[in-house]
Amino acid sequence: MKKLLTMAAALFMMGAVQAQELANFNFGGRKQIVSPEIKGDSVTFRLNANYATQVQLFGNWMPYGQTIDLKKGNDGIWETTIKAPYAEIYTYNFFVDGVSVNDPQNFMVQRDGTRYLNMLFVPGERSSVYNESSKRGTVEQRWYDSKSLGINRRMTVYLPYGYEKSKEKYPVLYLLHGGGGDEEAWSSMGRAAQILDNLIEQGKAKPMIIVMPNGNPNQQAASTLGLETTTLDTRSPENANAYVKSLVNEIIPFIEKNYRAIPKKASRAIAGLSMGGGHTTSATILFPNAFDYICPMSCGIRESDHLDADLQGIKKAGYKLYWIGCGEDDFAMPGTKILDAALTRNGMEHTLFTSDGGHEWKNWRLYLQTFAQLLFK
Amino acid sequence: MKKLLTMAAALFMMGAVQAQELANFNFGGRKQIVSPEIKGDSVTFRLNANYATQVQLFGNWMPYGQTIDLKKGNDGIWETTIKAPYAEIYTYNFFVDGVSVNDPQNFMVQRDGTRYLNMLFVPGERSSVYNESSKRGTVEQRWYDSKSLGINRRMTVYLPYGYEKSKEKYPVLYLLHGGGGDEEAWSSMGRAAQILDNLIEQGKAKPMIIVMPNGNPNQQAASTLGLETTTLDTRSPENANAYVKSLVNEIIPFIEKNYRAIPKKASRAIAGLSMGGGHTTSATILFPNAFDYICPMSCGIRESDHLDADLQGIKKAGYKLYWIGCGEDDFAMPGTKILDAALTRNGMEHTLFTSDGGHEWKNWRLYLQTFAQLLFK
C-alpha cells in the first residue's frame, strides 16, 4: 500500500504544479515582482510594462481625478512608493498610456457593480475585523420567489457561527446595498461576514442572521449571472416602493419561515447605504411596526410638509435605536443633516455618527462594525 | 402618504444613478463601446486605447502563444472580428503594447487561481446548461474543523432546489478541483450549480448535494481571503494522502451529520479534475467501500506492480460506475489510457469519454453535465 501512496503522490505533485488551465500569462519570461508591497508605513506599487511611455496610479484614498506617476527603472519595471493611507481596505488601478489596467501581481480584486478593482488592504486596528476570525459563519446564496415583482430573486444570507448545530432562534439584520450594487456587495466589499464573525467571537455583538437581498427590483440577481432583467421602470415611484414592500411583505416572511429567526420587531434591524439608506427610511415610515433598529447610512431625507407626521408614526410605534452614519465629505451630508434635525425636533432619540471621507465603503464598513455592537441589546 | 413615496422615490433615483462609490473610470469622456459583441457566428472585440501602438487578443480557444492583432480605427478604437468558436464559455485578454489587460467593457470575469480572465459566453446547445434555470439550488460556503490537518477549512456546498423544504435525504457528489484551484473553482468556472439546476429541472439528473472542498491541504480557503497557509509540505507523499484521508474521514462524516445526506456507499459519488482526478483514484483505492460512483477527469495513473491489486480492491468492494473523461489533446491522455487499459485487463466495466481539446474547463463542464446524468440511478 505504501508504494501506491508514493505513486499517487507523484500524481498529486504533477497536478499541483500545473494550473487547472494554461495561464494567460504574458508570453515570454518576465521577472516576478511584488505589488503592492507594504513596508512599515509605506506602500510600493510596481508594474512590469517595458513598452509603456507613461504609467499612473489612481487609488480611492486620493482625490478623484488625481494620479501619481510611476517611474520606469532600467529593468522596464515601473514603480512608486507612497505613504500608506490609514488602516482600511482601498481600491486602486493603473493607467498605462491612458488605458486602465489592474495590477497583475495583486490577486486581491473586488467587484463593484460591473467594475473589478484591485484591493489594497492596510492592516491595523480599524481594519482588523475585516480579516477572518477563527469562528466563521456560513454565507449562502439563496433564491426566493417574489410574487409581487414576478421574478425569482437571489439573496445572500449570513448565518452566525454555530447556527447549524444550535436550536436557538436568532435576531435578523436586513442589510441593504446602494445604487449600482447587488446582493453580493455587503458580503464582498462590505466584509459583513468577517466583521460579524469577529464582533460575535469577541462578545461585542449578539449572534445574528444577516439578510442581504438584491435591492434592484427589476433584477433577479447580480448582473454577472447574465440573467435577464424585467422591464420594470425602477425610476417610477410605485416601483421603488415595490422593492420595500417586497422586503417587508415577502422577504421577512420567507426568512422567518426558512430560518430560525425570531419573528418579532424587537429582533429585526434594518440598515442600508445610499439607495439602501433610502430603502431603510422608507421601509420604516411605511411599516413602523416592522423594525426596532433603524440604521440609514450615507443618505438623507428631504424636508416636506409630511416629514414630521411620517417620523411621528415611527415614534408612536416605538423603536430601540435610530442610528445614522455619514461621511463628512459625503454628498449625502445635507440630507443626513435634515434627517438629524427632523428627528431632534420630533423628540426622537437618535445617534448621528460622522467620519472623515465621503460616499465610500471604508465608511460603510466602519458604520457596520460600529452599529452592529448596539443591536438586539 | 403618497407624497412621501414620491419624495422617497426621488431619493432612490438619486441613489440609483450614483454608483456605490465613485468609479475608477478612465478620466475624461470616452465613447461607450460594446465588447465582445456576438452577431450570428462572429464575435467582435473592441478596445478603446488611442495611445497604444499595438493591441493583440489572446483567447483560450486559440493555440497557446498565438495572438490576433486588432486594427486601430480613426476614433482610437481597436477592433477585430473573428468567427465565433463553438458554443462554450471561453476566456480571453488583450495585450496592449505587451501589457496584459482585461476588456474593460466586459464585466463577465472569472477567477482561475490568482488570475482574473474575461469570459466569452458563446450560446448554443452545449452551453445552454451553463445558464441559470428557473429552479435554483442554494450555494453555501461552510467552514469545518479538520482535526487531521489542524485547521478550520472552507468548502462550497450545493443544495438542490427544494432541499430546505423537503424532508428527504439526498445522495452526494464530492466534486474535486485541480492544482491551482480551490473551493470556489467548480461553482464559478465549473458552473456546477447551473449545470445541476438545469439537469435536475429537466429530469435528467437525480437531485443531489454537491460538496466542493478545498483540495490544498495547507490552505484554509481560497487565497483571495488572505488567510495564512500552514507550513505543511504538500509535495510530501504523506501530506498528499492527508487530504484524501481528511476527505473520507472528516468531510464525509461532517456532511452526513450536518446535511440530509444518505450515509451509504450507493449514495456517494466522487469526481475530480487533474489533481482532483488523482485524489479521486487515490481515495477509491484507499477507501474502496466509500463510493459507488467514480469519475476521474483529465488525469491518469502510472503503471506499477501493484496497480492491478489496487484496482482489484475496488472491483472486490464493488462499484456502480467508473467513468473517465479526457480531452484528446490533454497532456493527461497517456495516463488516462493506462488507467483505461488497466481497468479493461482487470475485467472492470468502465466508460472512457473523450472530447476535443485539452486540459481545460470547457471539457470539465462537459464531463460534469455528461456523468451527472448517470449518478445514483
Task: Give a written overview of the molecule.
Two copies of one chain form a homodimer. By secondary structure, chain A is α/β, with parallel strands linked by helices. Chain A is built from eight helices and 18 strands. Chain A has helices at residues 2-17, 185-188, 192-201, 237-258, 275-286, 307-317, 333-345, 361-371; strands at 37-39, 42-48, 55-59, 68-69, 71-72, 77-83, 89-96, 99-101, 109-112, 115-121, 138-146, 151-159, 172-176, 209-212, 268-273, 293-297, 321-327, 351-355. In chain A, the strands form three sheets. Chain A has an eight-stranded mixed beta sheet, with helices on both faces. In chain A, strands 3, 4, 7, 8, 9 and 10 form a six-stranded antiparallel beta sheet that branches. In chain A, strand 3 (55-59) and strand 4 form a beta hairpin. In chain A, helix 4 (237-258) crosses helix 5. The longest helix of chain A has 22 residues, at 237-258. The radius of gyration of chain A is 23 Å and the shape is globular. The N and C termini of chain A lie far apart (58 Å). The model of chain A is unreliable at 1-19 and 22-29 (pLDDT under 50). At the A-B interface, helix 1, strand 7, strand 8, strand 9 and strand 10 of A face helix 1, strand 7, strand 8, strand 9 and strand 10 of B. Strand 11 of chain A pairs antiparallel with strand 11 (138-146) of chain B.
